[in-house]
Amino acid sequence: xxxxxxxxxxxxxxxxxxxxxxxxxxxxxxxxxxxxxxxxxxxxxxxxxxxxxxxxxxxxxxxxxxxxxxxxxxxxxxxxxxxxxxxxxxxxxxxxxxxxxxxxxxxxxxxxxxxxxxxxxxxxxxxxxxxxxxxxxxxxxxxxxxxxxxxxxxxxxxxxxxxxxxxxxxxxxxxxxxxxxxxxxxxxxxxxxxxxxxxxxxxxxxxxxxxxxxxxxxxxxxxxxxxxxxxxx
Length: 233
Known about the structure:
alpha+beta; 5-stranded mixed β-sheet; 4-stranded mixed β-sheet; 9 strands; about 20% strand
């Protein structure tokens, strides 16, 4: 016996969603315009269905689904390259958008893609058999980074992440390690950009770029350094 689950996702109008997935390399395998708008896109083993809903508000959507892959780094790079080729830039805020590639606290390396209909695809690769969230670290700055990352990427609450980072970096008498400081500042710049706070984003990027790391420390944070260069560019 074989089973397969296929998500059916809402959108206000179908065509912009199909155009977006075509950019990502999907093929439209079905498109019904009347009596009810409905469409299907496929790429490899991924199949997504969409239906039109006039009263639907994409910016307020909570619609999401998980996509499992055995090479999340490659898929992230392919999607980014296709988006840049189509749009002249990589959209990281608003709709549509693609998020950074990160290792999560529940044993998955993932990134998020949100389409013009507000539907979020959580595309990930398992890095551990244990899929439960790890307990937050006890150390002050590691704990703050843990919670801020969850808010920014898992819950898509950049304002909440910003509050945590600002609070922990304002603690008197305690300082993060250079690696912790870099990671906190890169995330702060990231969420500031999502919130449209360009001044804070520029300030955080400048501070992050000024953090001195040893060669060994740089090797421990490739994702954060890559995100720093992307945000600077």
